[in-house]
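Input sequence (219 aa), recorded before submission:
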Amino acid sequence: MPQKNKILLVDDHPLVREWLANLINEQPDLRICGEASNAPQAFQKIGVEKPDIVIVDISLEGGSGIDLIKNIKATHPDVAMIVLSMHDESLYAERALRAGARGYIMKREATKKILQAIRAVLDGKLYISDKISGAMAEKFVEGRPTTADSPVEQLSDRELEVFQLLGRGFSTRQIADHLRVGFKTVQTYSARLKEKLKLDNATQLLHEAIRWHESQQAK
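Predicted structure, token format:
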């Protein structure tokens, strides 16, 4: 029997991990070697299991999938990564690829596309949707940003993360604890958000963050 490629799942939803594990373990060439719900668990499992691919969600328990991807890329450069997320690819796919991921796929996609993504990345290829591929090609050819429809798309990775947490109802203190940064650091990010989004005060920022979060959930 040929050796199966090893896959580590990093997602803070147990039901998602169970669904993925069942799907992947049914394949003749793939197997789940471990699961994690946060970055520290993921690093521990990577060190022990040495997976061929890590499948990462954008939102994790106590941290950011984008940050985790950057850290894995820096410490385990031979480990390939795929993002599997509910978050809109038009906003997150290019960020994930810049951080070091080799693929991005939405959770709502058919299971066969998830398996296609895994096998494409194992084969040394990138896996992104035609929509994102076309947008990135435009950027290369025309030398302009791929995302310009909304000021939110121009936020830095950390600014977007703070904005998303505000929309989920986190307080400044809760965001600081979640991101493991100082209270004043979050206040600085909030000030940048108000400036970039052209908002006058914290109340407007909160309302805009909630409105944006609800619009993302409806997609």
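Checked by second reader. The mean pLDDT is 87.
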